[in-house]
Structures are given as C-alpha cells and as structure tokens.
Write a structure and sequence with these properties.
single chain, alpha+beta, five-stranded mixed β-sheet, 2 helices, 26% strand, disordered N terminus, CetA-like, signal
C-alpha cells in the first residue's frame, strides 16, 4: 500500500513538472487589460531612430498651477520616408481636432497636457488626409490616473494604415514598452491584447518606422 502511495506521488510530481516546463516553453498570453513585464531596452528595437528631430509645434509648457502629479505630454515621431497626418483628441470638450501634416524626419507634440484625472488622450495617425472621413486611423491612447499612474496603448480598432511599418511606444526605460515589427498586424503590440502602465510621470512617445 505504501509503495502504491509513493508511486502515486511520483506520478503527480511528474505531471506538475511537465506542466511547469510547458509554461516556461509557452508563456501565458497577455489578454486585454493585463500588464506585461516588457521593459524598454537601453537601445531602441531594430535600430529605430529615437533621437531628437525638428518638431512642427512647440512642446507644451509645464502647468505651474497643477496640483498633484506632474502633467505629461504625448509625442509622435515620423521616421518614415513619407508624410503622415496626425490629430489629437481627448475627453475634454475643449480639445479641438486639428489635422496636421507630419513630414519625414519631424515630430509632433499633442498640444494638450494630460493631468491625473483619467481623461483619455488620443493621437490619431493617418496615411492620407482623406482617411479621416472613413476613420482609417491608427491610434496612440493614454491617460493618467489620480495616483499618477500612466496607462497607454496602441490601437488599430478603426483601421491600421501602417501595418507595413515598425511601431514603437515607450514612456520610460523602467516601464513597459510596446513594439511591432513591420508587417505585424498589431498582434504583438496593440490593444486589446496589450495595455501598459507606468508608475512614473513621463511623456508618452511613439515612433513610426
């Protein structure tokens, strides 16, 4: 009887070992709303250019009157060899949709600061101006919670005109980054599969190509 019980324990241990090995070989998928531990590397993925470039507008000045965590900003950098069009929207009715052309090798700042009020900010990216009417747009979405946590993600819910280009979203080297190589349909970096959070109040920066 004792021998049978010991054999049973060995079988259980073997099954647990197999499951553990499988989990290490195939890590669990990251589902909507989960936070992946995917920290920004010290160098950009696949040599993407994150060096400073001329911007088409000024970086929004800090709000000295702001209470609580420091407001953050959103930034887009076009490393592609063609122009794209961008526009910022948010949950505040004072946010005005203004389409801007972003030429190759230039950057764009969302003119609206993001405060710790949970107000969602979105920067929409278009391949051509006529895509606005049909909502063929790629989106950089972010917000800051009351405690200062920054939430951010990429979304192709309304279309993805930039599947052919690499996409990289980062906040800080100590926080999660999102990256899709060229020709990836968004499975490796986009919402709803990936949502990221950073405990630091840093600007949200997106690089295309």
């Amino acid at each position: 009887m004792k021998g049978s019980f010991n054999l049973f324990l060995l079988l259980i241990a073997g099954i647990i070992g197999i499951i553990s090995a499988a989990n290490h070989a195939h890590p669990p998928q990251v589902y909507a709303g989960n936070i992946a531990e995917n920290f920004t590397p010290t160098s950009p993925p696949n040599g993407m250019n994150t060096s400073s470039v001329p911007t088409i507008n000024e970086r929004p000045a800090a709000d000295a009157s702001a209470q609580g965590p420091t407001p953050i900003r959103g930034y887009i950098q076009n490393n592609c060899r063609f122009s794209i069009w961008v526009a910022s929207v948010c949950c505040d009715p004072r946010c005005e949709f203004k389409l801007e052309q972003l030429r190759p090798g230039t950057g764009y700042w969302n003119p609206y600061l993001t405060y710790n009020n949970g107000c969602s900010q979105t920067i929409k990216l278009y391949r051509a101006p006529q895509d606005v009417a049909i909502r063929r747009e790629y989106q950089v979405e972010y917000s800051m919670e009351l405690n200062g946590d920054v939430w951010y993600n990429l979304s192709h819910e309304d279309g993805n005109p930039f599947t052919f280009a690499a996409r990289f979203l980062t906040v800080d080297e100590r926080c999660m980054w999102l990256y899709c190589a060229a020709e990836n349909d968004g499975y490796e970096c986009d919402w709803p599969r990936f949502t990221a959070r950073c405990h630091l109040q840093r600007d949200v920066r997106f690089y295309l190509c």
